[in-house]
Amino acid sequence: VVLDKETWESRSFGFIVFASPAEAEAVMQQHHFISGRMLQLRIAGDSSHGHDSTEDNGSRKVMVQPLSPEVNDEVIYQYFTETVGPVEVAGVLRDRESGQSRGKGYVVFVLEEDAAAAPLAEHTIGGRQVEVQGQGKDERRLFIRGLPYELDDEG
To answer: Which residues pair with 63 in a beta bridge?
Structure first.
Protein backbone atom coordinates (compact mmCIF):
# COMPACT_ATOMS: atom_id res chain seq x y z
CA VAL A 1 0.00 0.00 0.00
CA VAL A 2 1.45 3.37 -1.01
CA LEU A 3 1.17 6.06 1.68
CA ASP A 4 1.04 9.85 1.34
CA LYS A 5 4.45 11.20 2.44
CA GLU A 6 2.94 14.06 4.44
CA THR A 7 -0.11 12.48 6.09
CA TRP A 8 1.03 8.83 6.10
CA GLU A 9 -2.48 7.85 4.93
CA SER A 10 -3.21 5.39 2.12
CA ARG A 11 -3.23 6.83 -1.40
CA SER A 12 -5.69 4.06 -2.41
CA PHE A 13 -3.24 2.06 -4.52
CA GLY A 14 -0.34 -0.32 -4.07
CA PHE A 15 1.74 -3.09 -5.60
CA ILE A 16 2.18 -6.84 -5.24
CA VAL A 17 5.26 -8.63 -6.54
CA PHE A 18 4.61 -12.20 -7.67
CA ALA A 19 7.16 -14.99 -8.12
CA SER A 20 6.54 -15.07 -11.89
CA PRO A 21 4.77 -13.13 -14.66
CA ALA A 22 2.44 -16.12 -15.13
CA GLU A 23 1.18 -15.80 -11.54
CA ALA A 24 0.51 -12.07 -12.01
CA GLU A 25 -1.40 -12.78 -15.25
CA ALA A 26 -3.46 -15.50 -13.53
CA VAL A 27 -4.55 -13.06 -10.81
CA MET A 28 -5.55 -10.50 -13.45
CA GLN A 29 -7.94 -13.02 -15.06
CA GLN A 30 -10.29 -12.75 -12.07
CA HIS A 31 -12.28 -9.86 -10.58
CA HIS A 32 -11.36 -8.85 -7.03
CA PHE A 33 -13.32 -6.76 -4.52
CA ILE A 34 -12.41 -5.30 -1.11
CA SER A 35 -15.22 -3.79 0.98
CA GLY A 36 -17.48 -3.74 -2.08
CA ARG A 37 -14.95 -1.86 -4.21
CA MET A 38 -13.69 -3.46 -7.42
CA LEU A 39 -9.92 -3.46 -7.66
CA GLN A 40 -8.35 -2.46 -10.96
CA LEU A 41 -5.29 -4.52 -11.81
CA ARG A 42 -2.59 -4.10 -14.46
CA ILE A 43 1.05 -4.93 -14.92
CA ALA A 44 3.02 -2.11 -13.25
CA GLY A 45 4.43 0.37 -15.75
CA ASP A 46 2.18 -0.84 -18.58
CA SER A 47 -0.49 1.81 -19.19
CA SER A 48 -2.03 -0.14 -22.08
CA HIS A 49 -2.55 -3.42 -20.21
CA GLY A 50 -5.37 -4.55 -17.95
CA HIS A 51 -8.38 -2.69 -16.60
CA ASP A 52 -6.70 0.71 -16.37
CA SER A 53 -6.47 1.28 -20.12
CA THR A 54 -8.77 3.97 -21.50
CA GLU A 55 -7.56 4.12 -25.12
CA ASP A 56 -9.16 0.85 -26.21
CA ASN A 57 -12.29 0.82 -24.06
CA GLY A 58 -14.07 4.05 -25.09
CA SER A 59 -16.59 2.23 -27.27
CA ARG A 60 -17.18 -0.34 -24.52
CA LYS A 61 -17.62 2.16 -21.67
CA VAL A 62 -20.85 3.65 -20.30
CA MET A 63 -21.53 6.10 -17.50
CA VAL A 64 -24.31 5.46 -14.96
CA GLN A 65 -26.15 8.06 -12.83
CA PRO A 66 -27.67 8.98 -10.42
CA LEU A 67 -26.56 6.23 -8.05
CA SER A 68 -27.80 5.77 -4.50
CA PRO A 69 -25.10 6.34 -1.86
CA GLU A 70 -25.16 2.67 -0.80
CA VAL A 71 -24.35 1.38 -4.32
CA ASN A 72 -20.75 0.19 -4.64
CA ASP A 73 -18.53 -1.24 -7.40
CA GLU A 74 -19.62 -4.80 -6.73
CA VAL A 75 -23.33 -3.91 -7.00
CA ILE A 76 -22.81 -2.20 -10.38
CA TYR A 77 -20.63 -5.06 -11.65
CA GLN A 78 -23.16 -7.74 -10.65
CA TYR A 79 -26.16 -5.80 -11.97
CA PHE A 80 -24.77 -5.18 -15.46
CA THR A 81 -23.22 -8.65 -15.73
CA GLU A 82 -26.62 -10.21 -14.99
CA THR A 83 -28.80 -7.84 -17.04
CA VAL A 84 -26.67 -6.80 -20.04
CA GLY A 85 -23.55 -8.91 -20.54
CA PRO A 86 -19.99 -9.63 -19.40
CA VAL A 87 -18.31 -6.69 -17.65
CA GLU A 88 -14.56 -6.06 -17.67
CA VAL A 89 -14.59 -3.43 -14.91
CA ALA A 90 -17.14 -1.29 -13.09
CA GLY A 91 -16.86 1.38 -10.43
CA VAL A 92 -18.41 4.23 -8.50
CA LEU A 93 -16.78 7.65 -8.85
CA ARG A 94 -15.77 8.88 -5.41
CA ASP A 95 -14.75 12.19 -3.88
CA ARG A 96 -10.98 12.10 -3.35
CA GLU A 97 -11.17 13.84 0.01
CA SER A 98 -14.11 12.10 1.67
CA GLY A 99 -14.28 8.82 -0.26
CA GLN A 100 -18.05 9.35 -0.56
CA SER A 101 -19.88 8.39 -3.75
CA ARG A 102 -20.36 11.20 -6.27
CA GLY A 103 -23.57 9.50 -7.44
CA LYS A 104 -22.00 8.45 -10.74
CA GLY A 105 -20.35 5.28 -11.95
CA TYR A 106 -18.91 3.60 -15.01
CA VAL A 107 -19.00 0.19 -16.66
CA VAL A 108 -16.60 -1.19 -19.27
CA PHE A 109 -18.19 -4.12 -21.07
CA VAL A 110 -16.26 -6.94 -22.70
CA LEU A 111 -18.27 -6.48 -25.90
CA GLU A 112 -19.01 -3.24 -27.77
CA GLU A 113 -22.50 -4.56 -28.57
CA ASP A 114 -23.37 -4.72 -24.86
CA ALA A 115 -22.14 -1.15 -24.33
CA ALA A 116 -24.31 -0.03 -27.26
CA ALA A 117 -27.36 -1.90 -25.93
CA ALA A 118 -27.11 -0.77 -22.28
CA PRO A 119 -28.37 2.83 -22.83
CA LEU A 120 -31.42 1.53 -24.72
CA ALA A 121 -32.94 -0.23 -21.69
CA GLU A 122 -34.33 1.06 -18.40
CA HIS A 123 -32.22 0.24 -15.34
CA THR A 124 -32.95 0.31 -11.61
CA ILE A 125 -29.99 -0.10 -9.26
CA GLY A 126 -30.26 0.14 -5.48
CA GLY A 127 -33.93 1.06 -5.72
CA ARG A 128 -33.28 4.02 -7.99
CA GLN A 129 -33.87 4.35 -11.72
CA VAL A 130 -30.58 5.32 -13.37
CA GLU A 131 -29.57 6.73 -16.74
CA VAL A 132 -26.91 4.94 -18.78
CA GLN A 133 -24.90 6.96 -21.29
CA GLY A 134 -22.29 5.68 -23.78
CA GLN A 135 -18.72 7.10 -23.97
CA GLY A 136 -17.43 7.55 -27.15
CA LYS A 137 7.87 -2.91 -17.33
CA ASP A 138 8.23 -5.59 -14.61
CA GLU A 139 5.72 -8.24 -15.58
CA ARG A 140 5.71 -9.73 -12.07
CA ARG A 141 4.62 -6.45 -10.45
CA LEU A 142 0.88 -5.80 -10.40
CA PHE A 143 -0.58 -2.29 -9.99
CA ILE A 144 -3.78 -2.20 -7.90
CA ARG A 145 -6.17 0.77 -7.98
CA GLY A 146 -9.30 1.08 -5.86
CA LEU A 147 -8.02 0.00 -2.46
CA PRO A 148 -10.04 1.32 0.51
CA TYR A 149 -8.28 4.28 2.14
CA GLU A 150 -8.35 2.58 5.54
CA LEU A 151 -6.45 -0.46 4.22
CA ASP A 152 -2.81 -0.90 5.20
CA ASP A 153 -0.12 -3.50 4.46
CA GLU A 154 -1.57 -5.77 7.13
CA GLY A 155 -4.96 -5.96 5.34
So the answer is: 106, 133
DSSP string, 52-80: G--TTTGGGEEEEEPPPTT--HHHHHHHH
**Alpha-helical regions (H) of 1-155:** 21-28, 73-83, 112-117
For 32-46, write each residue's pLDDT tens digit: 888 888 888 887 655
Count of positions (residues) in the chain: 155
Q: What is the pLDDT of residue 149?
A: 75
> How much is the pTM?
0.58
Identify the helix (H) or strand (E) that includes residue 15.
Answer: strand 13-17
- Burial label for 29, CB within 10 Å (0-12, 13-18, 19+), is exposed
Q: Which of 7, 20, 32, 9 is nearest to 146 (CA)?
A: 32
Q: Say what the alpha-carbon torsion angle 5, 50, 19, 149 is, to the nearest 10 degrees.
A: 30
